[in-house]
Structures are given as structure tokens and as C-alpha cells.
From TrEMBL:
<dbReference type="InterPro" id="IPR036291">
    <property type="entry name" value="NAD(P)-bd_dom_sf"/>
</dbReference>
<dbReference type="Pfam" id="PF01370">
    <property type="entry name" value="Epimerase"/>
</dbReference>
<feature type="domain" description="NAD-dependent epimerase/dehydratase">
    <location>
        <begin position="3"/>
        <end position="291"/>
    </location>
</feature>
<protein>
    <submittedName>
        <fullName>UDP-sulfoquinovose synthase</fullName>
    </submittedName>
</protein>
<comment type="similarity">
    <text>Belongs to the NAD(P)-dependent epimerase/dehydratase family.</text>
</comment>
<dbReference type="InterPro" id="IPR001509">
    <property type="entry name" value="Epimerase_deHydtase"/>
</dbReference>
Amino acid sequence: MRIIVAGGDGFCGWPTALYLSEKGHEVTIVDNLVRREYDKELNSNSVTPIASLEDRVAKWKELTGKEIKVYEGDLNHYDFLSLVFKQERPEAFVHFAEQRSAPYSMIDREHAVYTHENNVIGNLNVLYAIKEFEPDCHLIKLGTMGEYGQPNIDIEEGYIEVEHKGRKDVLPFPKQPGSFYHLTKVHDTDNIMFACKIWGIRATDLNQGVVYGLNTEETLKDPVLVNRLDYDAIFGTALNRFLTQAAIGHDITVYGSGGQTRGYLNIKDTVRCVEIAAENPADRGEFRVFNQFTESFSVLELAQKIQSVAKGLDIDVEVSNVENPRVEKEEHYYNAVNTALIDLGLEPHLLTDEVLEEILTYSLQHKDRIIVDNVLPKVTWK
Ligand code: NAD
Ligand code: USQ
């Protein structure tokens, strides 16, 4: 299959591009490399030293003989995107290419506006490009579990049957996102749903939970292929971030009481879920939503698991309840459905002590790269 991986230089996109290439698909990466620019802006870095995208794909070709084409450019530039569509004629378009940090979107007005422009308009351009150039192309869009927020009822996969004043309908599940970033995903969802309805586009929205881990079989083939590992308070996400904190002997920063519960998945499952979606495309006009996570944990549970694994490696680390910089429920009901991908064949990699130990070991190897000043949160929601 001819597959475009937009955002293919990023944390989820790079291993996905390699995995799909390994499986024999013709993979093309589209990325404007802006994630590397955010690091410069924030004076931050990946814990692992990552090679340039050029070197990454050259090494992949050298090792496997497989070519991954690269277009360096911005989804917001429609002329550029049109050219990519005309030249590559994608059968599937995997869309990872958005500003994905909630704290980044909450820095100030400029960052909120940038996040909205980048994400919402970029996605709208992709919808128009599909309509104009490849109407049969399957859009596989990365959404987020955070679109649903923290409702006091079970979270369904995209839709819920509602009975109201004696009448019934299946309606989009209510959205209560927790940051301007998460809001962009809700706006994307609405735009995609509408485009499917009016133009007959086929789309799958993968409402992904928090991703942890860094290696896949493919990224382990050579150090040049290593994935990025984010740890700072803006781009680091709960589990990976906590492990890097343990690596430098920093307290694990549980925000508030730590009852915040989210769905999580291993990066190895991210790449497989995308493959499953690509192999089982939505019908023309269908807007399908899959909840993409394998297990749920509270942040306190994660911190305690990591503390215990670190102890096994003779690292003493404290769990510290720091003041929560976000506005969110710290104690709440959480029960989300995630059966669609499992029914299509996903076999989850679960969070074991061995998995935690592996990421911790990687963090320990590169701990000198961690800029300690970036660890504590400075951006607040208030
Ligand atoms: P990332 O920032 O590491 O990667 C995103 C990539 O997209 C970067 O390489 C960046 O340069 C590129 N990009 C951004 N805007 C672009 C644009 N306008 N044009 C071209 N390229 C652009 O993020 P990630 O962690 O790999 O996340 C990928 C996607 O998955 C995002 O949409 C994110 O919202 C979603 N997601 C991520 C997680 C997670 O835990 N990492 C969880 C749920 C959903
Ligand atoms: N948290 C802590 N301590 C920390 C960092 C985070 O307690 O040091 C808490 C947060 O307050 C939050 C939870 O952990 O309650 C998750 O935060 P996070 O930073 O790991 O994840 P989040 O901001 O939700 O965003 C990440 C990705 C985003 C993706 C989302 C999936 O950056 O792209 O959409 O996970 S989800 O959480 O399901 O919405």
C-alpha cells in the first residue's frame, strides 16, 4: 500500500514509518521538522540523541534496502500538500503531524493560537487534498482519549446511544477536553466527521491514550534509528517523564493528589494499531472512531510502580505531590471502552516491570543529556 506518514519524524511517526516500511508498504514521510524547533525554543532536547531525518532514512535504506521517501514541508501550505498528493497518490494518509503538547498550547495566547492554526488548518488541508486528489484515500487520524475529558460515565468509542424524551439516537460522545491542544483534536474530529458526511471520505480517528516506551524492533536495529524520548515539563508525558526523573534521582512529580486516570499504551502497540487501521479501511463516507489504549492507570499508581522498579536497580527515588499546574479532576471515575482494535487483532504489550526497567535503563545511559532545569512544570493553566 502507498502510505503517507505525516509527522514521520516525531515520537510516534518515526517508529510507525519504519514498521510500515518493514511490512513492505511504500512509505513516504511528510514533516516540517517543527518538533526539533520547539526543542530549540524551549532550550530542551530528547534524552536519546536523535539523528537528522536525512541520516535516519539513509541508515534504514543501508540496513534494509527499503526506501522511505521524505518531503520536508508544512501541511498548512496547501500548494506543497497538493504536490505531495499528486506525486505520491496515497492509499492511506496517517496523520500524526500536529503540535501535541497540552502545556505548550497553554503557555500564552500566541502558543494557543499557533496550536489551533497548525492543527486545525493542517487537518482541514488534508481533508481538502483527499477530496481533490485521492477521494478513495483512507485518512487515519491521530486523535486523543483526552477529547472525552473525565465524564462520570463510561467512555464509549466515539459514539453513544442516547434516549431523550422518549426518542433514541446514536450521537457523538460528549467532549470535555482539558487544554487548548486537546480542543484542537475535538475540532479536527468535527471537521473530519463533516467531510465524511458531505464528500464520502473514509476516515478512522484513533483516539490514542498516553504513549510510553521508545523502542520498537525497527528502531533497535541501529543507534541512528533511535526514537526520541521526551522528559521536560512541556513535552514529556507521564510515564516516560517519570522514568527519566528516576534516572537522575529527581522526585517523581505527581501533580496534586495523583488520582488522575488515563489510558496508556506502549509505542509498540501504536505502530500496530496504525497497521490494523490501514489493513481494515473505513468504508466510503464512514467516520470510525477507535479508542487506542491498552490499560489505564492513575498517575500515582505509575509513580509507585516506577519507584519500586527503580529500587530494584538500587535507585532510591521519592514520589512528590507537587502543586497541580493544570485544571483537572484529581479524583474521578474512569472506565473507557477499547475493544474495537482488540477485535481487529491487537495483542497488547502490557506494562510490566521489565518494560519499565528497559526504559529506565535507556534513560540511565543518556542521563547526562537531561537538563534538570526543564523538569519542574512552569506553565500553568490559570
Ligand atoms: P511529535 O511532536 O513527536 O511528532 C509530531 C511530528 O509532526 C513532528 O515531527 C513535527 O515536526 C510534525 N509536525 C507538526 N506540525 C506539522 C505541520 N504543520 N506540518 C508538517 N509536520 C508537522 O508528537 P507525537 O508524540 O509523535 O504525536 C503524534 C500524534 O499523535 C499527534 O497528533 C498527537 O496529538 C497524537 N498523540 C500522541 C500521544 C503521545 O503520548 N505522544 C498520545 C495521543 C495522541
Ligand atoms: N502529570 C503528572 N505529573 C507530570 C506530568 C503529568 O501528574 O509530571 C499528569 C497530568 O496532570 C495529567 C496526566 O498526568 O493528569 C497526563 O499528562 P501527560 O502530560 O502525560 O499527558 P497529556 O497532557 O494528556 O498529553 C499526552 C500527549 C498528547 C496526547 C495525550 C493523550 O502529549 O499528545 O493527546 O497524552 S490523553 O492523555 O489520553 O489525552
